[in-house]
Amino acid sequence: MADIINMFPKKNASPELAKARAESFGRNLDEAYGIMVDFALEDKFEAFSLEEEIQLDRVLEILMDFSIMWNEGQIIVSSEARGLDNDR
User: Fold this and answer.
1) C-alpha closest to that of 63 among 25, 24, 34
2) Which of 23, 32, 39, 72 stands the most exposed, by the fewest C-beta atoms within 10 Å?
3) Which pLDDT does position 22 carry in this prediction?
4) What's the rounded Cα separation, in Å, for the pair 29 and 31?
5) Taking CA 78 as the corner, what is the angle to CA 73 and CA 80, rounded to the nearest 5 degrees?
6) For residue range 8-64, what is the model confidence (pLDDT) as tens digits?
């Protein structure tokens, strides 16, 4: 879980952190997608309320889309850190 928390962008992240995130992006994406698929196949989503189950299904769908895009080279990650625009 700590690995996932470390993936969230932090303002003024160091270049080393950005590089590490970029290098592990595909591996982390595959891991997250695999965990969600396993949970879905084991019917673990049914332990949640209907609303939560729908949200988990949506997360699984998004991870599937991102995994396909990653594997087809449609997602490119950068090892450069950039600040978040708080005015958005």
Assistant:
1) 34
2) 72
3) 86
4) 5
5) 175
6) 655 556 788 888 888 899 999 999 999 999 999 999 988 999 999 999 999 999 999
Gyration radius (Cα) of the chain, Å: 15
Q: Find out whether 29 and 70 touch, Cβ atoms under 8 Å.
A: yes
Half-sphere exposure (Cβ direction) of 74: Cα atoms closer than 13 Å: 7
Distance CA 61, CA 67 (A): 10
The closest of 77, 76, 45, 75 to 60, measured between CA atoms, is: 45
Q: Give, as one character, the DSSP assignment of residue 2.
A: H
Residue showing tokens 């950068």: 78
Residue type for 60, please? L
- Its pTM stands at 0.68
